[in-house]
Automatic annotation (TrEMBL):
The lineage of its organism: Bacteria, Bacillati, Actinomycetota, Actinomycetes, Pseudonocardiales. It comes from Kibdelosporangium phytohabitans. Residues 91-272 form the DUF5753 domain. InterPro entries: Cro/C1-type_HTH, DUF5753, Lambda_DNA-bd_dom_sf. Signal peptide: none annotated. This is DNA-binding protein. It comes from the Bacteria.
Amino acid sequence: MARWELALRLRKRREQVGIDVRKITQVLGFTRNYWSAVENERKILSEDSLIQIIDLFEFGKDDRAELLELREAAKEHGWWSRYSAILDDDLQRLFGLEHGAHSVRGYESLLIPGLLQTAEYATALMTPDVNLRQVEVAQRVESRMRRQDRLTGENPLRMTQLVSEAALRQEIGGPAVLGRQLDHVITMVERYPDTIDFRVIPFQAQSCGLFGAATVHLIDFENPRLPTLIWQETVTSWGIIDDQTSVLNISGTFRDGMRRALSSADSLKLLQNRIKELV
């Protein structure tokens, strides 16, 4: 979060004051590639270099203090860094952004979302992957469970989750595993009604722009300086989308999905009925 905000504010301010990258390289002795790495979150400036940039970009006193604090925070490692051997950079970035987010809005076409998965459901999802060793499956499941702490700790993440009814039907791990998974969703929604809103788009819905998606998360932040980001995931690709035109389009599609979904209460009734079918 801190690394992203620092890079974002530097890039926006550079564009605002109209300073060319060549000017930065002349003043600080950087290469263009090094500055590109700074703006793309791959490098953290030294304190002296950041102070020079702050002066060059004519930041105010309050901004100066905030940027220096962000630099210090950006050097810290989150809990997800211990899983760097099994999580690629994009997934670690997702966990970090999610950790610092105010809320997430998500859609899943066929699965219960990771933030609400039980360990046995997550294990069943990963076990068929021939590229994963059993020890790696265990570590991935462990990281997924750790990620869920944001739903229950202090200042919990606000979650609005849409799923297709297909997610209630696909028997991941078998009927018993799915039944316990759906019961866990009900428990979480009833335990945290103010922060978790879980809704099902029923099979009766005749159309919805989200139907062509697999996994989509809209990540929102309390700080008004920070824009909404999108995490999109398919079988072969995943990553963060920060293009704001795309964000606006996907946000509109999500609102359409909310209109077509059942109410929270009716969604829970559908889960309860599905559990009875699985017994």
